[in-house]
Write a structure and sequence with these properties.
The chain has 333 residues and is an alpha+beta fold. It folds into two domains: 2-139, no CATH class; 210-331, no CATH class. Helix content is 31%, strand content 25%. The protein is built from nine helices and 13 strands. The strands form three sheets. It has a six-stranded antiparallel beta barrel with strand order 8-9-10-13-12-11. A five-stranded mixed sheet has the order 3-4-5-6-7, sandwiched between helices. A two-stranded antiparallel ribbon has the order 1-2. Helix 3 packs antiparallel against helix 4. The protein is globular. It starts with 5 loop residues before the first strand and ends with a helix.
Length: 333
């Protein structure tokens, strides 16, 4: 009966109806569960044989009571499915996000292991045929203790960069970073984590992910990465982070994180930007996206830009940029 409510023919999931009230709630939640397990299995190298049901308790439980392990940590998942008109508008899933945050706080307090991973995912299923289903990872805000000024400074900075990076990339190391921040917040002696580099499930250290520099807008041969925002009027603005911030997060030197200050703080320089923007934004610039170089495995295209960008003390890079016509823009691949 699933095909009465959902269309799977386009390689993604589309709702045949608009709005929650016209769709079978149980089937919507099943889609949410399915999407969540796909994400979890991809992130943690799991498969269907790894999951077992969790007994229900009287506390705020995860909606989908399944538990798995990657061999070193327990992984609990909470799934939400939502029918949306526009997958880019987070307001349409705000109730699901609030529920996940509240329940994860309750679970975190009860978790017997501080290394447990509580994965909350909202599967946003569009009713529009022009969009694809999105799986949105949700993590509650970090509760920073106020009894240790040094620990507070470290956690405040880590939480800030986690938020900023989560906007700019979906790189896998962010899961490890989020877990590290929560572990630090709960630890009686947070120094035991000093210089403990972020690692993958197999114990291998994370490196600066190539996907960031291959799919996002980059400045001056990977000096910085981020997003170019294009208005409907064709005005462009770059916002991103220095590449060294990613290395800082992966290396996890408490001294370097707490003492970090960009050596180019306050400086503004003319820089080249290889913008990777979505096709609709290219059209706002008066360009034909079909004639531009495609970014592999994404819906983005490449456009050369220049602008005067300012670097902040905290490693943010920002400023207006403009399109520079080049032969590659017209010829594509």
């Amino acid at each position: 009966m699933l095909d009465l409510y959902f269309d799977l023919s386009a390689g993604t999931v589309h709702s045949r109806y608009t709005g929650q009230d016209r769709t079978n709630k149980d089937f919507t939640e099943k889609c949410g569960v399915g999407g969540t397990l796909v994400v979890a299995e991809h992130l943690f190298d799991l498969h269907e044989a790894d999951w077992e049901a969790i007994s229900i308790t009287q506390t705020k439980d995860l909606d989908f009571q399944l538990l798995a392990s990657d061999g070193s940590r327990f992984i609990k998942v909470e799934a939400k499915g939502r029918i949306v008109d526009d997958v880019t508008k987070r307001g349409e899933v705000s109730d699901a996000k609030t529920s996940i945050v509240q329940k994860k706080h309750a679970q975190r307090k009860l978790s017997p292991s501080r290394n447990d991973i509580l994965l909350g995912v909202i599967v946003a299923i569009p009713s529009s045929e022009n969009q694809v289903t999105r799986c949105l990872l949700v993590d509650p805000p970090i509760q920073i203790p106020l009894d240790d000024p040094g620990k507070y400074r470290l956690l405040a900075r880590l939480a800030h960069y986690l938020r900023e990076l989560s906007v700019l990339t979906r790189a896998h190391f962010l899961i490890a970073l989020a877990n590290r921040v929560h572990a630090l917040a709960l630890a009686d002696n947070h120094q035991v984590f000093d210089m403990e580099k972020l690692r993958k499930q197999d114990g291998e250290q994370f490196e600066s992910p190539n996907s960031i520099f291959q799919t996002r807008s980059v400045v001056d041969d990977d000096y910085a990465f981020g997003e170019v925002l294009v208005s409907s009027a064709g005005d462009c603005y770059f916002y991103g982070l220095l590449s060294e911030v990613v290395d800082l997060m992966i290396e996890q030197s408490h001294e370097k994180i707490s003492g970090y200050r960009s050596t180019e703080a306050g400086e503004a320089h003319s820089r080249k930007v290889l913008a990777r923007i979505v096709k609709q934004e290219a059209k706002a610039l008066g360009l034909d996206p079909e004639k531009l170089t495609k970014v592999p495995q994404t819906s983005r295209v490449e456009v050369s830009m220049v602008g005067t960008l300012t670097t902040t003390a905290g490693g943010h890079v920002l400023g207006p940029v403009e399109y520079v016509r080049a032969s590659s823009d017209e010829e594509g691949n």
